Amino acid sequence: MPTEQQRLQQLNAAIEQSRDDIIELTCALIAVPTLNPPGACYAEICDLLESRLAPSGFKIERVRAVGALGDSDKHPRWNLIARHEGRNSGECVHFNSHTDVVLAGEGWTYDPWVGTVVGDRIYGRGTCDMKGGLAASIVAAECFIRTFPDYAGAVEISGTCDEESGGFGGVAYLAEHGWFDPDRVQHVIIPEPLNKDRICLGHRGVWWAEIETHGHIAHGSMPFLGDCAIRHMGSVIDAMERDIYPALAQRRTAMPVVPDGARQSTLNINSIHGGLAEPDSDYTGLPSALVADRCRMIIDRRFLIEEDLDEVRDEIHGMLNQLKNDRDRFDYEIKELFNVLPTMTDKSAPVVGAVASAIESTLGTEASFVVSPGTYDQKHIDRIGKLKDCIAYGPGILDLAHQPDEYIGIQDMIDSAHVMSRALVTLLTPSDAS
Ligand SMILES: [Zn+2]
Predict the structure, then answer these.
(1) Superfamily of domain 4-203+342-432
(2) pTM for this prediction
(3) 430: pLDDT confidence band, cut at 50, 70 and 90?
């Protein structure tokens, strides 16, 4: 039997030798254009993952999120869960990566749908967010399994769809169907691009709402005969500027949110539509003279773990009620579109400790802890799956996500694969724990 130290050296060597493999795997994943929306090629990417993981001894299951938001026969929402059992019983560590990517957009130097290797970088849509992280977790898991075949527990790797559009056909569906129940999965690592020395503990909360102001339609030459809904909406913006924005700026959080600007409550006015609809691009005529009888605004409020969702709602409802009292003929409706509660995994949770010490031992630097300004699939694992031992940890620079010329650093993938594999040693080989 090799000693623990020898096995750790073997593990390191195996990861170091995986350089060509990790590049090839990342490029193969990029070449499957899993564009979302509409949710393309999800079956194809599952084929690719199965052909990779089945020969490594993983048992493969595919789950289509039948009936979930976005699922259709044209664009079925396919997910893959691969599970490898150790020789002894124990806990399960699950790596969850989303397989979907956002549209490429303009401004690319490289073909976004082919992985292009230039120096230490691979360019392509989804390299950073997050096919590079998926490739790193696959290599980490395979190297761990080969080096520690007698480990206790199980390793799971999932490739799930639709994260970029809310995750309802992906992680939410799997969580609803028991795949993240704490009796089958105990620890979750989501390899989103958060830099190889940072652990993301969770995210702020979200509250989206649509506010509609009502007016009265009339001829635009006699606006006094109507009531302009857009002017009423202007008073809503005034009240936000005067009362809401200054109040939100005062609310700072103890959550280590990055970037610093997001370490407070925020409110984004996502869109406003009032009056005539935008004409078709081929319409060449003038608008008609009308007073707007409806104006709609969508707001995107991000809130803190120190805030309560009801208080978040009440603040906006209170502002609107005040306007109704103060402003002549002000009338409105408000509709909630979506909410997600903030979540933050405890720093003392096992997966946090395992990854933090792996960062220290393999990168020689102390782990830093962050919280994401926006949400990701941890929300479903936490809320539906009731699984609390969950973090995001993976290679890549978050700012590059969704940008043209998105890339992943090859050495960053190797480094984070070292960290992931070492975390597996800690969590699944209790006697060998480093
Ligand atoms: Zn992502």
Answers:
(1) Zn peptidases (3.40.630.10)
(2) 0.90
(3) confident
